[in-house]
Design goal:
It contains 15 helices and 8 strands. The chain is of the alpha/beta class. The protein starts with a helix and ends with a helix.
Length: about 375
């Protein structure tokens, strides 16, 4: 890669990391050491939040990453140039071809060459992005690309698949929590005998193995009904244990989910009663415009005194709040208006707001400084 493109990548990576840090300031990384590697690699993550999944994963990796991207992004000469310049390899899906047979020979050849040269390639193996807390069944493309590259190097390449699990508190909300869970890498050479015996079955085996490992790195609910119940319990858990770290909440939530499934299987009637009570509790809170956090706070020592102290503190902080709110109304409002105007799938809301904010806030600050300088 040319020095110019390498410098451009480093610059864009810095911008991405700053933007992500601002948009998701409460980001926790488990096993940060797993983001440091020098071997040929395929990096994979679950995909609930479109472009932000890519930025959260790739911007944390301490080396240059290339991206496998939907061929539909390359349809015009400009976007073809843009995404090719931004280190993307187009891969066709049936959504991109209108159901016609896929032609990914060139994409596989480019992936082979890139990985054989020691590169790191990011792939979202679910194929599509759905804003849900449950992984979709993985496509086999990641395994086929991995085996293709290793096979062309007689399984001496040392290729690893590095899985990352992303868990969002609320993907669309500015300032919400995100947990980045870096898993143990999968060594492709460990599947050499399987591939030699039956390549098709080896692809299926590797895909299933990778899917199981990725599901273990996230909060992976079975359906919307299970997710709604778990969210009620998470809310109570977080308010009862404010001292817990984000990692502790994540691990405990995984344990709660496992316990719920065990109870549903072993004692379905008791589980049904418990589920009804939990959802009824959430409904009562909503009806009375209350929060579990407020109810928990009332039970704590000196709760009444703390409430009275909050009143003068709120009055003192009101001028600062009003200044900040008014001063940032325009640059913060532009991304929101743009999101509403575009009317995209809700999974793109966070992406649109972050990308628009990258331009609107610096531009506003520059215009504001110019106006102040001219006035003074």
């Amino acid at each position: 890669m040319s020095p110019f493109l390498s410098a451009l990548y480093r610059f864009l990576k810095i911008i991405a990391r700053i933007a992500i840090r601002i948009y998701y300031p409460r980001t926790t990384i488990i096993n940060r050491a797993g983001l440091h590697f020098d071997n040929p690699a395929i990096v994979v993550s679950n995909h609930p939040n479109t472009l932000l999944d890519v930025l959260l994963s790739a911007s944390r990796i301490h080396r240059q990453v290339c991206f496998l991207a939907n061929a539909g992004l390359f349809k015009t000469p400009f976007t073809d140039w843009l995404f090719s310049t931004l280190y993307c390899i187009p891969i066709e899906r049936y959504d991109d071809t209108g159901g016609k047979p896929l032609n990914n020979a060139d994409a596989f050849a480019r992936c082979d060459a890139f990985l054989s040269a020691g590169g790191a390639l990011f792939i979202a193996p679910e194929g599509n992005s759905w804003m849900e807390r449950r992984m979709q069944k993985l496509k086999t493309g990641t395994a086929r690309i991995a085996f293709s590259a290793e096979n062309k190097n007689n399984f001496a390449l040392g290729l690893m698949i590095h899985p990352i699990g992303l868990t969002y508190e609320d993907p669309q909300r500015f300032g919400s929590r995100v947990l980045v869970n870096v898993g143990e890498p999968v060594r492709i050479a460990d599947f050499q005998e399987d591939y030699a015996a039956n390549p098709i079955e080896a692809v299926r085996k590797l895909t299933a193995f990778l899917e199981a490992r990725m599901r273990a790195l996230t909060i992976d609910t079975a359906d919307e009904e299970e997710d709604q119940l778990l969210r009620v319990l998470e809310r109570v858990q977080r308010n009862d244990h404010p001292e817990w770290t984000n990692e502790q909440h994540f691990l405990q939530t995984q344990a709660v989910l496992k316990s719920l499934r065990a109870q549903q299987q072993d004692a379905p009637e008791a589980f049904a009663v418990f589920r009804h009570q939990a959802l009824e509790y959430r409904q009562l809170l909503d009806q009375h415009r209350l929060t579990d956090r407020a109810l928990v706070a009332r039970r704590r020592p000196y709760a009444g005194l703390l409430r009275w102290l909050q009143i003068p503190l709120a009055i003192l902080g009101l001028p600062v709040f009003l200044y900040g709110w008014i001063n940032h109304l325009l640059p913060a409002g532009i991304p929101v208006l743009l999101k509403r105007k575009l009317k995209l799938y809700p999974g793109y809301d966070g992406t649109v707001k972050l990308m628009a904010g990258i331009f609107s806030f610096p531009l506003f600050y520059w215009l504001q400084s110019e106006a102040v300088e001219a006035w003074v």
